[in-house]
Amino acid sequence: MNRNFLLGIDAGTQSTRAAIFDCDGKKLGSAETEHNIKYFTDGRVEHSPEDLWNALKTSVTRVLEQTGIKGGEIAGIGVDGTCSTTILCDSQGAPLLDAIVWMDTRAKEEVKSIAKSGHKVLSYSGGEDAVEWIVPKALWVKKNIPQVYHKSSYIVESINWLNFMLTGRWTASRCSSTIAWNYASVDGGWDRGFFQEIGLEEILDKWPVTVQPSSLWMCKRQCGGPAGTGRGNTGWTRGSGRACGHAGNGSVRYRYNGNVSGIIQRSSGPYTGSHRDTRYMGALSRGCIRS
């Protein structure tokens, strides 16, 4: 069977979208499945990881049915997702809590305590972590639900968890890790001393060992992909939806350099993002964007 089509999956906040394109980039069809998000008056925002996974499968099934394309005709699968939606799970990927959505603000005090460390790694993120990010969220869980924190084998973002569900492999995106996990490739990656100082000395043992500029993987089962996309489909994911959006709208561009990682670089046109976006772009420039 010829493989002439590409499948894109965007696991967003409110919904998961799937779209199929031909190899010239023409969109042939798309589908969207909404998430059931829970909002609390104290700033907590949560949703079920299983709901996220089911939304992915539903959207992919619907777009295949809509286009009449068979799973075996898909040549590649690209996945992106929201940055910093945090999932704690066991070694098999079974969630131990509802996902803490990126916009959840429960970790405000943890942000302050992390900033008080004054560690040099914080200079890469404007002197403090943002309340949305995975590090203050993990610290909140350790302080407030310690039994779940210590039981967890992995504390990851939803995109890492979805990739595991698709492939059976735990990997982290250098893009997301640079944005929100205090990863600084220019300093060799993560600074274990920083995490010891802020009270998260175990966290590096709960994160994927593999950090890649992009993640190249194969579907893990004979019919392991959603709706029988099948074994042997190649997938490529490059981290957060925000970063992928910058590439899509021309703020940055992708340039293939002869290897799997490629290069993301600033476009020649003006960048007009918000102040927060500019800070994200500054963090990205230290990990996977080259001027």
Overview of this structure, please?
With 291 residues, the chain is α/β, with parallel strands linked by helices. It contains nine helices and 16 strands. The protein has helices at 49-67, 108-116, 134-144, 146-151, 158-167, 174-180, 192-198, 241-248, 275-285, and strands at 5-11, 15-22, 27-34, 38-39, 45-47, 74-81, 86-89, 99-100, 154-157, 171-173, 210-212, 215-218, 234-240, 252-255, 263-266, 289-290. The chain has a six-stranded mixed sheet with strand order 3-2-1-6-13-12. Helix 6 (174-180) packs across helix 9. The longest helix is centred in the first third of the chain and has 19 residues, at 49-67. The protein is globular, with a radius of gyration of 19 Å.
Question: How would you sum up this structure in a few lines?
Answer:
This protein has 291 residues and is of the alpha/beta class.
User: Average pLDDT across residues?
Assistant: 80
Taking all Cα atoms into account, the compactness measure Rg is 19 Å
The number of E-state strands comes to 16
Low-confidence stretches: 215-225, 230-238, 251-291
Shape: globular
List the helices and strands and how they pair.
Elements: E1 5-11, E2 15-22, E3 27-34, E4 38-39, E5 45-47, H1 49-67, E6 74-81, E7 86-89, E8 99-100, H2 108-116, H3 134-144, H4 146-151, E9 154-157, H5 158-167, E10 171-173, H6 174-180, H7 192-198, E11 210-212, E12 215-218, E13 234-240, H8 241-248, E14 252-255, E15 263-266, H9 275-285, E16 289-290
Parallel strand pairs: 1-6, 6-13, 10-11, 15-16
Antiparallel strand pairs: 1-2, 2-3, 4-5, 5-8, 7-9, 12-13, 14-15
